[in-house]
Fold these 2 entries.
Entry 1:
Amino acid sequence: MTTTISRRAGGVISYSYDDFPVPAGRLDLRGDNSPPLPATTVLLEHPRLRPPELAGYGTVAGEPALRAAMAQLFAMTADSVVITAGASEALFLALTCVADHGQRVHLPRPAFPGYEQLAHITGLRPIPYAVPGALPLPGPGEPLLVCTPHNPTGVLIAPQPRRSAGWTIWDLSHMPPIGDSPADFGRGLGSHDITVFSLSKALRLPGARVGCLVSRDRDLTAAVIATKTHLSMSTSRLAQDLAARVLRHPGALEDVANRTRAYAGHRARMLDAVATSTCLQAWPALDGTHVFVRPTDGRDGWRILADAGVVGLPGVVFNGTSDAVRLCIAQPPDVVDRAVRIVGAL
Ligand SMILES: Cc1ncc(COP(=O)(O)O)c(C=O)c1O
């Protein structure tokens, strides 16, 4: 009997940071290198759950306290929220529940690489649209996925009136959970909209693997919960308890606000440096922790920056043009200072 790997699994493309090593003496701007939020340190050092809670699965939809906290963030009801193992599982569930094998799904390019790979795994046909640019008008029943703040460009895309008869999946993983933005966003969403969110980014908890999917459509949330029963089942109760306590912690949200302000400064300085350089241009970043840069003359931007001492992630990782490079500005101020000086002098 012949054993083969399925085409879907065999065709999965995955990169790790190790594919783009940082030689000694160069600056690492590949990803978020910031420490956990200071106010959460005590919570992270003392995860707590009573033994009976760990001796049982939790509910598939998520722990009530965390569903309520997520619901409050997006001005929705707790039964609209399904807690997931990061935004990655939420995206997988969303794509699985909104389209069938062979159907078209409209995805941004460049973009978080998971979109195209998850579409491939779930048997959907990705139809790319450019960011920045006008959102496409999908055909009947074709889902559209939108990421804002957008990884890797930092571009913002406002909620839009319904554009087609299909679902729209909004990936808000890089939106800081502070101020009015998440609730305003939630209030603007209709029953055809699905929100995906993550605690990995602004709350700096990628290791907790907590995210959520939010939808006003009861049939959709029921389908998501049924599907999730055969995936992660319940998300780690330890992580959910931690996440609920972090979200309730006023100091943690103050830390997020401080970091968001600091990163706005880092972003502005990096964009200025790119504008000062004689050979680089940047996408118009307004939020998030990334700046996406390319040379004006079609040369390999990743190589130019890496040779000059600043290592980011190349555009191909994001299905973008191979001359582009993503720089993450969530770094200590001295690293940003040094990177800005190098970029500005190019
Ligand atoms: C835009 C976007 N969506 C989703 C994810 C997945 O996040 P998580 O760590 O919560 O699975 C990422 C991770 O980098 C991301 O950048």
Entry 2:
Amino acid sequence: VIKLFDQKINRSKEKSIKYDELEKRFGNSELLSMWVADMDFLVEPRISKAIEQRASQHIYGYTTRPKEYFEAVCNWYSRRHNINLNKDNLLHSPGVVTSLSIAVRELTQIGDGVIIQTPVYPPFFDVIRLNNRTILENKLIENDGHYEIDFDDLHKKAKLAKMLIISNPHNPVGRVWSYEELEKINEIALEFNIIIVSDEIHGDITFEKKYTPFNMINQNAITLISATKPFNLAGLQASFIYSEQNSYLLKLQSMLNILDLKNNNCFSIFGIQAAYEYGDNWLDEMLKYVRKNMDYVNNFCKENIPMIKPNMPQGTYLVWIDMRNLGLYGTDLERFMLEEVKIAVNMGISFGQMGDGYIRMNLATNKETVEIAMDRLKEAINKRVINI
Ligand SMILES: Cc1ncc(COP(=O)(O)O)c(C=O)c1O
């Protein structure tokens, strides 16, 4: 039996950003592709079946959401995360980044301070900057590959802020924030009357430690949730906004209406609902598989290339690797990865200045690819160290 996640899928014909833009973005279509957060796994078969059934109708007009669509999300959250969401407080949005930008635009004013915890997913910077708000960086503190929140600094920045955007779990450092950490964030936010936006797109991608939906702590928080990351459905373009603060929801819905972003497309309705209804086992198996890849990378580096230090993420399928012992930064590190290692990764510096000297590698792929990647890293590093 071919194991589902071990299969090497040729993705070259699907027009994927991950593969079909290698040439355009990195100048070499032959690189091993381990950048953008997109998995190489075939989806849960009932998801593709639902989409294929819809496709086989051969009429693709405007499509309405059945009530089961939002119910499926609520059932998933009560089953997997022990929280009862109210389906009337869920909004549809085409994507989490769209929701972030709309939240910044509708709930803060031009020039207002918005806190982000760096290093962090690059669009967090963009949605603040492009909307002419002010970025306030609450830098995470690193201790031997493990990241913590600098609460003293957060308290200082909070005085200047109207909004705080968190990544829960955190991309790229892989922290699953604990209940206590989120409570502390919440206390500070309440003290200074700051709106919390919690990007929970990685909430279902956790290992031993489970994630806490921010809404459990503060019902007014705006949480952004999506089946697209855990089930690899980003191309369907559908996600959710949740809050129990109706005044926020009204403003966000109004902007979604203004931009006419309120409808699902005809495929996302079926695909996303199927994911939440049938995805449990697939997701659990996927997580076990990725966890093994993480272990492999960690053990391999310890034994063969101890000068580079991968973290062991508590959540996300992304490994954050400290390459600083190589003494390469900025474009030098990038050139090393592209020309000597020949792997496309996300450069740490794109997550903020403090990410310089790190890379983010996507391990949601078959084991063989991970092994090849580690061999390439080892060979390129050994060559380099001998030449120094
Ligand atoms: C933290 C985070 N937020 C949002 C996104 C993208 O969300 P969407 O495709 O729904 O805009 C990603 C994708 O990697 C992510 O890591």
